[in-house]
Amino acid sequence: xxxxxxxxxxxxxxxxxxxxxxxxxxxxxxxxxxxxxxxxxxxxxxxxxxxxxxxxxxxxxxxxxxxxxxxxxxxxxxxxxxxxxxxxxxxxxxxxxxxxxxxxxxxxxxxxxxxxxxxxxxxxxxxxxxxxxxxxxxxxxxxxxxxxxxxxxxxxxxxxxxxxxxxxxxxxxxxxxxxxxxxxxxxxxxxxxxxxxxxxxxxxxxxxxxxxxxxxxxxxxxxxxxxxxxxxxxxxxxxxxxxxxxxxxxxxxxxxxxxxxxxxxxxxxxxxxxxxxxxxxxxxxxxxxxxxxxxxxxxxxxxxxxxxxxxxxxxxxxxxxxxx
Length: 324
Prior knowledge:
Beta Polymerase, domain 2; Methane Monooxygenase Hydroxylase, Chain G, domain 1; 2 domains; seven-stranded mixed sheet
């Protein structure tokens, strides 16, 4: 799908039939999962080469950031689906010329649609290709900041679930299912954080290249510095959240160890508690002809009382020492 934006209008090009070229005054050309015909149309209309999907997925900097025939090519990895709990990373290419801004993507990016809506209401956002790029990057960074805020709230909720119990209530054991769910939530938060941090780093590299590659008369320097400062603050936030996740993961593993030790302690105490009664029962179960208590009327009740006392006394002793 092609979507073209000028200072006067926003128009989706649903079909290329009967269209000889781009509408007059086109500033931004948004290519969303374009077909071969659409790519060929844009290449004819702008005179630049559109990178392939395979080229966009290259990870070396020379394949992502370069200038060719007067056009600045920048491919950044953008995180999507962080707020909707389905985080993914997708390569997105920004191609800046003196006449057009061309974006190429193969996934839905909410910030692009948000900026398109703003540009429709405020045409001045797309006065020039350079300013359209700056405002588009600003929308991407804002959406990325929302993603970091979402991850931070999720991490805080995990912390409350793990440690902030009701005061005055007796400490209850954490079930295995609850611990498993805690680890799953930690893994999901870490996955979203890593993708968001990768997106911030990728955008920062692209802006750093644009700082030196953009024409001086475009006056993009102050805008680029502002975006880079915002990305630096997001990177600091990512480090803070990452430290919290590491602590929560260590704490969760500690809780699992405590629960395992509690289960083993129950078996150990049970074995110790029933050891003296077993000893007494073993003594009176020996097959000797003469045991003084065998002929005594109260011998059987006495043996039962001894076994009960030998089980209760260790239990009370353990409770007194605070081992249970």
